[in-house]
Amino acid sequence: MLRLLKKTSAHETDVILNTKVKDAKDIKVGDVITFISTSSISKGMTITHRVIEVTKNENGVAYRTKGDNNISPFFNFF
Fold first, then answer.
1. What's the whole-model pTM score?
2. Is 30 left (phi over 0), alpha (psi -120 to 50) or beta?
């Protein structure tokens, strides 16, 4: 999982620079991350979204994300 350098929002013509996260626990609500989707709708696609919720599950830490221009968040945790 990669984390976008801090910025309030991304625009269509922006260049996004990602940095590799050493520890997934460093990702916080408000961070923008890039990941490979496991959702049935977008499986295998590279997604860049803002983290809106961090939770712990049986696999460790999970994130709910939402695109800045999307009305609703992703249903799945990543």
1. 0.71
2. left
